Amino acid sequence: MTTNPLLDTLTDFWDREILPALIDYIRIPALSPDFDADWAKTGHLEQARRLALDWLERHRETDWAVHDLQLPGLTPLILVEIPGQREGNVLLYGHLDKQPEMEGWREDLGPWKPVIEDCRLYGRGGADDGYALFAAVAALKALRRQGLPHPRCLILIEFSEESGSPHLPPYLEKYGDLVGTPDLVVALDSGTGDYERLWSTTSLRGMQGCTVTVRTLEEAAHSGIASGIVPESFAILRQILDRLEDPATGRVRLEALHVEIPAIRKQQAKDASEILRLAPVAGLHPLPGLRPLSDDPYELILNNTWRPSLCVTGQDGLPPADRAGNVMRAYTRLKLSFRLPPPLRCEEAKKAIERAVLRDPPFNAQVEIRFDQGGDGWEAPPPAKWLQEACDRASLKHYGHKAAYLGLGASIPFMKMLGDAYPQAQFLITGVLGPGSNAHGPNEFLHIPYARKLTACVADILAAHEAG
Question: Which residue among 146, 259, 266, 357 has the highest number of C-beta atoms inside a 10 angstrom radius?
């Protein structure tokens, strides 16, 4: 006789109804608007929307209302309004747009090729975070079948999250009455430290991108004639990078980008490091022999969650190696991505970055910086006693371990929006992006057993909800 009927019900629903839908979803190259400027003509986001609406039509309960919303020139929004049997207003969040393909997929895998192997569903967008809509629906249907009351719930699914959610604010303004004032926000778009317990995200870093261009010549010149006479643009850009980051340690040198880390976040990082050890390093598939930036897992967690970092993510002006002649190029342009501590505002970071890049140009070269739209970070409010206890009970019930807490080095712009709009709300930010799942990169996968249990945890937490 079963000892966990809720999980049994959800496992069956996942296998029969969710996995086939996710397989179809992965096949759709539903790129976010930043990566498909002609998204309206391409029609892939519309395909994802249609798949979701058709699935909802088959699985919604008779008293649920599905709001299919489309403002002119914006990606769509789906709201599923589910009446409750007790006080409270819960917002459950996910998105159906995707990151681009990325190189490096295994030969037998691909971004739009769904493959189930070793309890993992491979393909772009399944874990980040196409599963969210289906899991949220499944959790609420399971509560209905178990006869467990829950508060009013609203599932919100957007289509521009991977572009920073630029299309979302107009919908929130126009349909604010429908959204109401949530007292609990459950976001299913985050990460997990391992696959052995429920993880709750306590903070998100901000992000600020920019391009830095160094020009030295009106036109490219023969390297044998120009070298040794005029400075090379990449060498100058390398000096500028050294102003921003210590190349030996990876530490960002701009003190204005660092913040005092709260004691509670240090303790949570210490607790998480004792669980995870160096597992986050292994989950990134480093080449044999590669050393991490620190041998101390505690320092690695703080590096990734509360300290600024810099990545070079793109370039112009450098031809592919197999087409590069003996030429001193006229310019070099690098795309930089800064991750910022949760409390630091992008506007403050931009000022510090701009000052460092533009001051005293080496050899008086032309140096230019252009900033992208940034996104501020976010820190969760302290969890209410009922929420913390409900997370522990659900995690013990379905995983056998108490819940754990961890900051996330990435960004979810919607959380900052909601945190500002609903400062009294509680937040459960969770997800399935665990070790090796590699969202945004090659070989992205969804860990199916973990996702089933996470769905059961969400159901139990909704049933335990206490309106504040």
Answer: 357
Residue identified by tokens 């945190």 is 419
DSSP 3-state assignment of 328?
A: strand
Question: Can you tell me the distance from the alpha carbon of 304 to that of 364, in angstroms, rounded to the nearest whole number?
Answer: 35
Provide the H-helix boundaries in 175-308. Answer: 176-179, 223-226, 233-244, 263-276, 279-282, 297-305
At 195-238, the pLDDT tens digits run: 999 999 999 999 999 999 999 999 999 999 999 999 999 999 99
Whether the CB-CB separation of 446 and 94 falls below 8 Å is answered with no
Question: Are the CB atoms for 429 and 454 separated by under 8 Å?
Answer: no
C-alpha 100/C-alpha 125 separation (Å) is 10
CB count in 10 Å sphere of residue 400: 10
- Alpha carbon distances (Å) from 288 to 284, 300, 311, 379, 416: 12, 19, 22, 35, 38
Burial of 245 (0-12, 13-18, 19+ CB in 10 A): buried
Nearest to 156 by CA among 93, 216, 81: 93
- In the block, which residue shows the tokens 């959790």? 139
Residues near 62 by beta carbon (within 8 Å), at least 6 away in sequence? none
Q: What pLDDT, on a 0 to 100 scale, did the predictor assign at position 129?
A: 96
8 Å CB contact between 131 and 62: no
Q: What is the largest CA-CA distance in the chain?
A: 83
pLDDT over 70 at 2, yes or no? no
Structure tokens at 215: 């020009």
Do residues 92 and 84 make contact, with C-beta atoms less than 8 angstroms apart? no
Cis peptide before 36 (omega within 30 of 0): no
Q: How confident is the model at residue 468 (pLDDT cuts 50, 70, 90)?
A: low
CA-CA distance, 362 to 367, in Å (whole number)?
Answer: 9
Residues recorded for the chain:
468
Euclidean distance between CA atoms 458 and 468, whole angstroms: 18
| Collapsed DSSP state (helix, strand, coil) of residue 428 | strand
Task: Please list, in sequence order, all residues whose beta carbon lies within 8 angstroms of the beta carbon of residue 223, skipping any fewer than 6 positions away.
Answer: 326, 327, 328
